[in-house]
Amino acid sequence: MNVISFIPYVYLITLLGMLTLTLIIAGRMRLASFVSAFRWQSIFLALFVGALGVQSAELGLVATALLVLIVKVYLLPNLLNVMARSSGASQRLSAYFRPATLTFSTLVLCVAAFGVANLLSAVTTSDTLVTAVSFSMLFSGFFLLVSRKDLFGQCIGFLVMENGIFTLSLSLIGGLPLLVDVGILFDVVAGVILMIMLAYRVQKEHASLSTDFLHDIAD
Amino acid sequence: MILLLFGVCLVSALLPLVMHSERALFRSAISMSTILFASTVVLAVPALSAQPFVSPNGWLYIDSFAALLILIVGFIQWTATLVSIQYFSRELRDGHLPLIAVRVYYGLVSVFALCMFVVLTSNNLGLMWVALEGTTLATTLLVGLNGDRGGLRAAWKYLILCSVGISLGLLGVFFVVSAGVATGLAELALSFTSLHGAGLSPELLRLAFIFILIGYGTKVGLVPMHAWLPDAHSHAPSPMSALLSGVLLNVALFAILRYKMLVDGALGSSDWSNTLMITLGTLSFVVPAGFILVQKNYKRLLAYSSIEHMGFATVAFGLGTPGMVYGVIHLIGHSLTKSMLFFGAGNILLHFKDTSLEKVRGVMTALPYSGSFFLAGIVLLLAVPPSPLFMSEFGVIAEMFRTYPWYLGVILLAAVIIGAGFIRTLIPFLFSEPNTPRADTERWGLSHSVMALHLALVVLFGASLWYPGTMQFIQHIVSSSMSL
Question: Side-chain half-sphere of B286: how many Cα atoms within 13 Å?
Fold first, then answer.
């Protein structure tokens, strides 16, 4: 038995891991566990990319997996936690719905994602399960953006969406040239760092990270 | 040559790091933006009439349409820098901004210009996406430069909505690339020129274009993804607003058009993409009309007008070759006019310290020069001849009579509402008695010379359209962009 023969199991475990964490993230209402659920989802993503790299013997993909580990598992979650601590933001998150409703809605979205993946399988060559998990992350990330009432929810929502798009790119194309991958990852990192900086200023200015300040009527 | 342009942007982005005095900072900003404008002239003017050019490594591609937009970006970043000197000197003197904020501004504006040049010259789908997202990242802090509640709100909305939008665009990019990979292009599946005519799957390209139109359309400010635009364009410092409205929207629309050519090629007809663009464009023209009619803030008024004009340009580009000629005219006319109006709005804001249409009265009496330029700009924006927008709107309307009469009815109704909205809001703004104590009479400054230059160029361009040679030249630009 060599390493390669385990790879299909790694795929299955990492994909199911990402899917489960999508549901877990949806209902988390404390900052620390919300961020750590995202961290775990990114660990599974990195493992998935790494396994893909080992199977296809592509160094570029292994390097991308390492970058995901550095950026999405270590750097960004830690930055979010540090910002929350230093600005004195509350650990309690808020949403428009109760946690159970959030999780159930996300579950419905995941089922819809499987439907979309099924439709897409007619036009793309990608694996249906990977497409379904990617769209689950994409939809649930979008749902986090609109259902959460604080800036952390929007930040993590964007990151979960990005995880979904990244996974889909792997299944559709099997990885991009490293330079483009690095460029995309750089944009994501810079975007999230900017979000964290702005959120810090919002916390300092309004003593809250609630999205209420976005709803001032201007017109 | 293209790399030299990128190099000038980079140097210009780094220089503010070592400029510690206000005088040195302004001097270096003016010199670098002048050099940048000169470089765009040297690069773009020959490319306007030349055949499309692909760099030897295949990463860069420049055609006449890209060259035209490079020239417009180069020109407006130059005039915006000239105007910004007066604007920021005043802000620094009044203590509204610290020097560090102005240094950040000049550094990031150069990064912003660099990203726009990369979008316009990229032959690589991934690189183009990275640069387009780069324009958002470079300008987010500038939108919130003032640091007040409104600025923070505008910056957050801008960053979140554009990042999410452009992420959906990335999905579209991946669908295109996967269609390329399926035809055996491998690494070349990321190159526009290789993808063109490669026999891509029509279904995948349709799916991709929907994501691209939604994703990149967010950056163009197309309705319903426009919610960030009025906030961002009205809260940014005025020279920045001029750049956001005057050039960034064009650059994003250019990216969409690149993909439209690919999709049309794969489908063997442009009917499908045209209908999508006309529908979304009409929606973007109609929805802002209501907001313009009841607007209470003159910078937001200009921002909503940008949405409406980009909607109109999108409709024009959805009308096939004759419409595309008018689309190009519309983009040039709108860029020059809207940036001039934002320069004027900057002077008005500096004097009245308010952007509310209710509180600012009698601009023509208080600021005769800026007020006159503002009035002239509004008249041109409302497509009164010799505005180039008259020619483009007349041409598009004539074309739509034949092809899309129902859409045209809605557009004409909205145009009447927009015209009424501008007249209703701006007559008291410009012509009533000033409600502030009479200060010194306005003196002619650099910003006025810049606005005069913009005005002269718009009028000259509008007048030149009556000569067949100009129309033929624009026709050449359009056909070069279609020959991808």
Answer: 15
C-alpha distance from A178 to closest chain B C-alpha (Å):
11
pLDDT of B48-80, one tens digit each? Answer: 988 888 988 889 999 999 999 999 999 999 999
Instruction: Of B132, B123, B236, give the one whose Cα is nearest residue A187.
Output: B132
- Rounded distance, CA B41 to CA B35, Å? 10
3-state SS class at B422? helix
B222-277 pLDDT, tens digit per residue, is 999 999 999 999 999 999 999 999 999 999 999 999 999 999 999 988 999 999 99
Phi, psi of B18 (to 5 degrees): -105, 5
CB B176 within 8 A of CB B259: yes
Which of B156, B204, B302, B425 to mutate to probe the A interface, most A CBs <10 Å?
A: B156
0.90 exceeded by the pTM?
yes
Sequence-ordered list of residues with C-beta below 8 angstroms from that of A46, at least 6 positions apart, any chain:
A65, A66, A68, A69, A72, A73
Two structure tokens written together for B437: 């104590």
Angle between helices A99-120 and A7-27 (to 10 degrees): 140
Q: Is the peptide bond before B224 cis (omega within 30 degrees of 0)?
A: yes
Chain B residues near residue A172 by CB distance under 8 angstroms: 174-175, 177-178, 181
Distance of CA B410 to the CA centre of its chain: 25
Chain B contact for A195 (CB, 8 A cutoff): yes
**Locus of tokens 């930040």:** A155
Q: What are all long-range contacts of B469-477, with beta carbons under 8 Å and residues at least 24 apart? A: B471/B325, B473/B49, B474/B325, B474/B328, B474/B329, B475/B325, B476/B49, B476/B64, B477/B48, B477/B64, B477/B65, B477/B68, B477/B328
Two tokens, residue A35:
């961020």
Are the CB atoms for B78 and B20 separated by under 8 Å? no
If you count residue pairs, one on A and one on B, with CB atoms under 8 Å apart, how many are there?
A: 116
CB contact under 8 Å between B156 and A151, yes or no, is yes
Residues in B closer than 8 angstroms to A205, CB to CB, are: 149, 152
The answer to ipTM > 0.85 is yes
CB-based burial of residue B5 (10 Å sphere; 0-12 exposed, 13-18 middle, 19+ buried)? buried
Spatial separation of the C-alpha atoms in residues B384 and B52, rounded to whole Å? 35
How close, in Å, is residue A213 to chain B by CA atoms?
Answer: 7
Q: What are B391's two structure tokens?
A: 């020619």
A191 touches chain B (CB under 8 A): yes
A176 and B CB contact within 8 Å: yes
Q: Which residue of A has its CA nearest to B184?
A: A173
Of B136, B164, B291, the CB nearest to A161: B164
